[in-house]
């Protein structure tokens, strides 16, 4: 434990303040320390007697920071004996060095006393030993110390300007300067005195800057200059209350109070000695407008008095910095400086109220008047400019000022990044070759920062016209006066200095903008003449010195500069990233790779990732020898940048990859460097199939994103195959796919086709390769998800397929009977139409709806000769004809509903085109579009139809159709009735049959049977249903006569069969139809598939008939009372239908009879059920008779298995 005691040698009453901080380590060197509250470390023991002593204890070495006001002290060093080797007062601190070489910095505030001592020893158990070290010296007054101490405490709270080691160094410098100027005071310092007096101050600031440069370059220099300027601006306190207010409100007062009173000469000479023109402008522009102008006036007055070459150089630097100044709104120290200056303004000043925050705004502190003041300053020191380099600089400054602040447009376009980089490279190259330039020895990053300021002059306002005119005149004068000697210097063999380069560059820009100024500005004759003369002078000067700008034999440092800008994130660093990513010459150098590694986050933009990929592919596939490991490293870095992008940005990259390198993606060019893709692919998709859930969707999308950019084609095809082959995965995989809308890419190599990449993958991977109906269903569901994606939470998705392209790619080419995919295409067609019905936009317009309608009509036309086609040409069953008809109706409905989207002329032309095309097809196909053509074209039907129907000439027209000769009117009529229920009802209403003429009814009935036989085999189930309803309607209207024969009646039944008359007539009619079909003249009409088809139609009708019978029996009017029960009649009907079904079975080949056999068993079940439910009415004899009769009918059925089954079923009654 270390004990420190401070003892006064004389009996004095007073106060001692001690502030200390403790480190966790021993202090070996100077550095910033954290202060702690005095109450934490002081344990005072005060004795008023032989002397005053204060002691405190700490767990570590104490360090007391700061310095007292010791202006009366004589500095020196005293040596003592004992544990303490030496103690003394250095330049700006008191140092105590003990025998064990542990250093302690001491700061003392004490009451009046002539002598004091610092005692130090180790605390040993059981005793305390003190070995005093006497330090003599006078101490300041109590009042001064109190004020200073309180100011210090306030400064602790302020935080910005704490008293610390750097402040003590600065304080020491001023104290030494004050001692050197003694007996005069620094407030009276003249310009000529600075060389002798200013050295300690300059050295103190340089010491501060060098000590802190490793962590805070220029920060302490700026802070010190602010303190000094604030001291200059501070008015002297006039009263104690004024002092109290200052230390409470002014953060600079405490530290400024340590500095002696100084004048502007000290400030300006210090700035000049430090060559701190940039800092001077920063601080100057931070001041309120009034103060700013006043300070600049004082500066110019100082510079123009006894002007030396150093004054000229500093003045030109200040002028140049003024033009480059852009302000720093985020600097809190400048804001405090500005607010301090506000407080010291007179209350009448318009800017006396300090702003809430610092703003570098032209309206608050306008630059234009300041530049005008500097221009006048140049005129005043013109004769003092003797050095050619300074003359170059003066002319360059003047040219730049006039160019930027007078001639340029109000909103000039920023030069391109490549031009900007080239200008930086030129400037820095000149600096590198100019050993006299202050930036010659600086690091590249510092050079780039300064060069950026040099080449980026901008203006928010314009110089007053008077200043511009004065500038033009002054420019002419200087060119006349200095032109020849400058030309001689510029054309000499000496190397290009920055001043000479800048002169030529600035005059070139000035000349270009001056020409534009002459062309666009309205000037008086005298003004125009003067400006024209100036333009000629400048042009002539440049012509004679053109070699300076043309001779650019500098080293190529653009790459290093661009990388430095990126590394330091300087102005326009993102533009440099684009140049970095695009420049092939730089790629794969060690510096290039290191820059990419260190600044990977900056390259996480889609365009940059694409640029990098393009560069890597071009360079790696060229003849340059690049280590494979380095290429792999760079590719890995780029893919990491890609992986960190958002999903929309990943899509931008994917889109760019597809457009640049096609479906093979990066693997097409970089396959040799992308090892392990197949393993990654298999691993990823194994994981996908095992965890197909929305919870893992984001992770799955991220995994697929990397695969899809490496090899889009393989990845997407794999996903398509999995979606079809793996049951239930289609939705999850579709969600992943729809997260990449870039897959809708259309390759340039397929410019003749508009097929998207996604469609190509679907067609090549799975289309036409389905092996089971399950796979077809999965494919349909996948298409649905890709058309109308399910939107998961947090992942943006977009449709990868459009309805029109689905129809063009998967439907339209396959709408033919002889194409295997026609059935699936129809399913896709109806699914697409129904799923897209909710779309607001009329999408059908984009896929040519009229050709689509005609394709469906062609498909329907194929059904008219269906059974005449070879089996291999019938890839779609006749049952699917109903689906085709439904799609056609739905399509026509959609087109009609959006007819207004066509121009009237286009609509008429399209209808006419379709009508002409339909003339090539069967007439029934055109009739299906009756409502579509309504109002434009009449319905064209065979002429024979007019013989049996009252057709209106306004709506119908006759055409000669082959195959419709005399007597075929009823056939044409029946074919019309098959088309739709509405046309069937219309045909029925227009039918001409005289019911009162039995012969006509008989002939109609025979003709109807013949027509039914001709039409039935080519009917779809729905068409046959229309005919079934039509037949029932004809029977009910007694237009159709169907006599009921007694061939399956043993005895005349004494029953009420009237409720079942239509059912019995329909059953016998169907029997007659099949007797006709199985006759010698018709039995070879149909192939086996055709017979299967008509049997299914018959079974459908008989099933409907049985349903009707059951309905009549259960809810008919005859079922209201017991005496009117229809059970016997129903049983009779069942036996008749059973006999008719077995009769038909007996006429047909066994292989087509399975549906009828099943129907016969169902009829027997119905009979048995009804018979057992009503036992009272069935006598035993009747049951036996009916059983024997039914068995006799069933005996004629083959094969044996069916016959035995039927007989067994009957025996169970």
Automatic annotation (TrEMBL):
InterPro entries: GEMIN4 (IPR033265)
GO biological process entries: rRNA processing; spliceosomal snRNP assembly
Entry's Gene Ontology cellular component terms: SMN complex
Protein name: Gem-associated protein 4
Organism: Carlito syrichta (Philippine tarsier)
Gene name in the database record: GEMIN4
